[in-house]
Design goal:
The protein has helices at 6-28, 59-95, 97-111, 115-126, 130-156, 160-167, 172-208, 220-227, 236-269. By secondary structure, the protein is mostly helical. The protein has a single domain (57-269), classed as MetI-like (MetI-like fold), CATH 1.10.3720. The longest helix has 37 residues, at 59-95.
């Protein structure tokens, strides 16, 4: 058995740390947004490892608290697009015909649109907001899952175990959900990791532009936007949230690629 690369273990460690921050931030940094105008912006020092921003807020505390919006929001986008994409992809791949044609034309239309630009336009017209940003990205990311799942279903559709299930007069829904989906779940999960990374970057970008979380909220994209003018006074106020987004997205991509490789290797072994 091939050993797991060190890069994968490092990526898993990053994801574990970010997940812990998102889950326990209220207890780890209960006063992350507390302001101290007397302190103002300072560089790294005792009590403030990454310094403070112009409102006297601890940058490290904001970084930990920011995981509370950055990670769950991206997870919601990945999970929502996975659910929609899996349902449409299963239906299109299993039934074919007009269902397949309609699903693929919808996917082609969505792929022809620049997802982040569309999200910026929609959020800007409707007034922005964290929930709206998530909903828009779910719709825009779902076609990727649809195509991946449809392709996997087409590969499984005419296998003997499916033909046997049809001969037993099992319903199409049961065949799709109880027989086909378990055999393609690993592919769908690997793709969800990649969508997770793209969603994280996209949500941070929207927050940076003021179309995501509300002003003053601890969020990596928002913190980066709020402190971009303080780069010379305390560079870590800008570098830290940027590195958090990059490191988390890179870790998700590494784990997603690793899952894809394991799936492909397993398929070739069969």
């Amino acid at each position: 058995m091939k050993r797991t690369p060190i890069s994968v273990w490092a990526a898993l460690a990053v994801l574990a740390a970010v997940t812990a921050a998102a889950a326990f931030a209220p207890w780890l940094v209960p006063g992350a947004t507390d302001q101290d105008l007397m302190t103002g912006i300072t560089g790294p020092g005792p009590g403030h490892p990454l310094g403070t921003d112009d409102l006297g807020r601890d940058v490290l505390d904001l970084l930990i608290a920011g995981a509370r919006t950055a990670v769950p929001g991206a997870f919601a986008v990945a999970a929502g697009s996975m659910l929609i994409g899996n349902l449409i992809g299963l239906t299109a791949g299993y039934f074919g015909g007009w269902a397949d044609t309609l699903a693929m034309r919808w996917a082609d239309l969505m792929f022809s649109l620049p997802a982040l630009l569309v999200a910026i336009v929609v959020a800007g017209v409707l007034g922005g907001g964290y929930g709206l940003a998530i909903a828009v990205l779910v719709v825009l990311f779902a076609p990727t899952d649809t195509r991946v799942v449809r392709g996997a279903v087409l590969e499984q559709r005419h296998r003997p175990y499916i033909e046997a299930a049809v001969l037993k007069n099992l319903s199409a829904w049961r065949i799709m959900t109880r027989h086909i989906w378990p055999n393609i779940a690993s592919v769908a999960l690997a793709n969800a990791f990649l969508n997770f990374a793209y969603a994280l970057v996209s949500l941070s970008s929207l927050s940076f532009l003021g179309l995501g979380v509300a002003a003053g909220s601890p969020d990596w994209g928002r913190t980066l936007a709020d402190n971009r003018t303080q780069l010379l006074a305390n560079p870590w106020a800008v570098i830290a949230p940027g590195l958090a987004v990059i490191a988390t997205a890179a870790a998700l991509n590494i784990v997603g690629d690793w899952l894809h490789e394991r799936v492909d290797r397993r398929g070739r072994a069969r």
